């Protein structure tokens, strides 16, 4: 899972990146746009893995992970005009991400020299959205031109379908709407997959605010941010990134003590990781044993055979049955599989079984 952090200069993308990944990437004042990319990976906290590890005391414990990419920001045109754009290389880095975390500046009412003459979360959301729309529209228009050239040699049915879809996308984007607002057929979804359209990706709006704003839902900048994101039906998350970055620099023990002292039940890093997981529609199933306890992230809706492929392609190919125990009854019986089986909590499922979050699975296969 890869979450791209995108935003305008001075929005605090790198601060959020450092907070999320415990990295120490350079946080700098506004500089002309560069191609510098920061990448980092972090474990997704999961109490269930901790409890399973306590039962099995395995040689290895493997958590699900999320990778974050800190993407260079949209830069204002050098001639002072109102235009803004991502560099071509930057767009390529955004497209490979599974979802986008849009870091929006909410903190402070002061102006930011050379970047904005105002702090306006709603306008920033609009500016970023328009940039994504324009980038996707350019792709669609290029594809339409190529298809029209190919059709001069003969109107093949597959080309006609592709052209019809591209015209539909073009109409939507020209209306400054996201492709995600369309209801596409499974065939149309398959045709769009290779383009990695920005406006088709899951979006998480991250409001970078001050400590005081985090506690004040009536703050005018907070309200502007939440209203603008809600209008686009985006998931939102308010984070005091500067403070949270400082907390993230502590050791896990020091961080836990700090959060407990200030009555904070969950760090913003943990909230961000869980929200990213949810926005991407991911769940985890577990494999357990004395050698390894491991979380396997899959998208909700995976059947048992496809889930088996996350472990190894041979298991998917030679799939016979899945031995499944839900997490809660498993813990009720203290991790005793025999007791779960006696209580009727162990099931043998076929390849079409839809894996549920928290399922503890042992696959039977033959290759």
Briefly say what this structure is.
The chain is of the alpha/beta class and 367 residues long.
What brief labels describe this structure?
367 residues, alpha/beta, DNA polymerase, domain 1, Ubiquitin-like (UB roll), 6-stranded mixed β-sheet, 3-stranded mixed β-sheet
List the helices and strands and how they pair.
Layout: E1 2-7, H1 13-21, E2 38-43, H2 47-56, E3 60-62, E4 65-70, E5 75-76, E6 84-85, H3 88-95, E7 99-105, H4 121-151, H5 157-174, H6 186-193, E8 203-208, H7 211-214, H8 220-231, E9 235-239, H9 241-248, H10 252-261, H11 268-279, E10 282-287, E11 292-299, H12 304-311, H13 313-317, E12 319-325, H14 327-332, H15 337-342, E13 346-349, E14 360-365
Parallel strand pairs: 1-4, 1-7, 3-11, 7-8, 8-9
Antiparallel strand pairs: 2-4, 5-6, 10-11, 12-13, 12-14
Helix pairs in contact: 1-9, 4-5, 4-8
Low-confidence stretches: 77-83
CATH topology of the largest domain: DNA polymerase, domain 1
CATH class of the largest domain: Mainly Alpha
User: How many E strands?
Assistant: 14
Radius of gyration, CA atoms, in whole angstroms:
23 Å
Mean pLDDT: 88
Provide the number of structural domains. Answer: 2
By DSSP (H or I, 4+ residues per run), the number of helices equals: 15
- Read across the widest sheet, the strand sequence of neighbours is 2-4-1-7-8-9
Which class do the helix and strand fractions yield? alpha/beta
Gross CATH architecture of the largest domain: Orthogonal Bundle
Distance between the termini: 29 Å
Strand content: 15-25%
**What is the CATH homology-level superfamily of the largest domain?**
Obg-related GTPase Ych/YyaF, coiled-coil domain
Question: What general form does the structure show?
Answer: flat
């Amino acid at each position: 899972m890869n979450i791209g952090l995108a935003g305008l200069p001075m929005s605090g993308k790198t601060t959020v990146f450092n907070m999320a990944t415990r990295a120490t990437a350079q946080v700098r004042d506004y500089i002309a746009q560069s191609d510098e990319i920061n990448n980092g990976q972090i474990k997704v906290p999961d109490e269930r893995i901790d409890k399973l590890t306590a039962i099995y005391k395995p040689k290895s414990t493997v958590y699900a992970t999320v990778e974050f990419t800190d993407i260079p920001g949209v830069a204002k045109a050098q001639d002072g005009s109102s235009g803004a754009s991502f560099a071509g290389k930057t767009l390529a880095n955004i497209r490979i991400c599974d979802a986008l975390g849009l870091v929006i500046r909410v903190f402070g009412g002061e102006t930011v020299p050379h970047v904005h003459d105002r702090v306006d979360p709603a306008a920033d959301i609009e500016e970023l959205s328009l940039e994504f729309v324009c980038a996707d529209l350019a792709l669609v228009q290029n594809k339409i031109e190529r298809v029209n050239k190919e059709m001069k040699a003969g109107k093949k049915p597959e080309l006609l379908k592709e052209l019809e879809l591209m015209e539909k996308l073009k109409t939507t984007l020209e209306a400054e709407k996201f492709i995600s607002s369309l209801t596409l057929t499974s065939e149309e979804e398959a045709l769009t997959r290779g383009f990695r359209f920005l406006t088709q990706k899951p979006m998480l709006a991250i409001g970078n605010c001050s400590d005081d704003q985090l506690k004040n839902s009536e703050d005018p900048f907070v309200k502007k941010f939440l209203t603008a994101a809600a209008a686009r039906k985006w998931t939102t998350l308010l984070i005091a990134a500067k403070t949270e970055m400082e907390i993230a620099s502590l050791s896990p023990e020091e961080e836990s003590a700090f959060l407990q002292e200030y009555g904070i039940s969950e760090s913003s890093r943990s909230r961000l990781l869980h929200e990213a997981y949810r926005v991407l529609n991911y769940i985890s199933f577990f494999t357990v044993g004395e050698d390894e306890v491991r979380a396997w992230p899959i998208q909700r809706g995976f059947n048992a055979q496809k889930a088996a492929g996350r472990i190894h392609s041979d298991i998917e190919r030679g799939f016979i049955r899945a031995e499944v125990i839900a997490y809660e009854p498993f813990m009720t019986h203290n991790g005793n599989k025999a007791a779960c089986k006696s209580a009727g909590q162990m099931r043998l499922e076929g390849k079409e079984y839809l894996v549920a979050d928290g399922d503890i699975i042992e696959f039977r296969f033959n290759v």
